[in-house]
Amino acid sequence: MADSVASRVRLDIQQIDQLFSTYQELLDQARQRPPNLIEMTAIASVLHSFYNGIENIFLSIARGVDRHVPTGDQWHRDLLVQMSREMENRPLIISIELARALSNYLGFRHFYRHSYSFILQWTELQELALQVRDIWSRAKRELFDFLENIKNSPDYENIDDG
After folding, report:
1. Model-level pTM?
2. Three-state helix/strand/coil letters over 80-119
3. Distance (Å, whole) CA 22 – CA 66
4. Is 112 within a domain?
5. Taking a C-beta distance cutoff of 8 angstroms, is the pair 46, 26 a contact?
6. What's the CA gap between 116 and 1, in Å, rounded?
7. How many other C-beta atoms lie within 10 A of the C-beta of residue 123?
8. Which of 10, 19, 44, 134 is paired with 128 by a 20 to 30 Å CA distance?
């Protein structure tokens, strides 16, 4: 059963990698010059998709390993916090430092979903856009470490397929 959780996590990791591969040229251009509104809107979409992918991974783990998905108005934030804490049946999934960095993308995701793209400002988007690939590298490394830890865990067979 744990194999299905790990498979879903690996699939989402591949899809986030594909996201960055697809938009690599756009993100590279943003390092050279400020993007225009259309480019900024595309970058905002990439950041939104990135965090959605991260959250999909966390949901798979919450359902299949923790057997608990937060509810309520703050469930997105609570899920992120849950992933940065040890649980009775698993080690922490991401470091507190990574959770803090990802919280900025969670906040942006909320902004993006509830606003109009024409109000985007590069000064507010720049740091997230320029750091996203480094944040993803850290997240991917920590996620693969987690997958390796649960694979070697005596509780491996008790992990649900969500």
Report:
1. 0.91
2. HHHHCCCECCECCCCCHHHHHHHHHHHHHHHHHHCCCHHH
3. 33
4. yes
5. yes
6. 42
7. 7
8. 10
93 lies in some domain: yes
- Asked whether residue 9 is domain-assigned, the answer is yes
Integer Cα distance of 88 and 94 in angstroms: 16
Domain with 74 in it = 2-154
- Please provide the average confidence, as pLDDT, over all residues in the chain: 92
DSSP three-state, residue 120: coil
Q: Give the domain CATH number at 91.
A: 1.20.120
Look at residue 50 in the predicted model and tell me its pLDDT. Answer: 98
Kindly state the tokens that stand for 112. 């993006």
How many domains would you assign to the chain? 1
Rg, C-alpha atoms of the chain? 17
Rounded to 10 deg, the angle between the 96-113 and 37-61 helix axes is 120
Q: Which two tokens stand for residue 71?
A: 């509810």
**Cα distances (angstroms) measured from residue 46 to each of 3, 15, 73, 94, 140:** 29, 12, 25, 22, 17
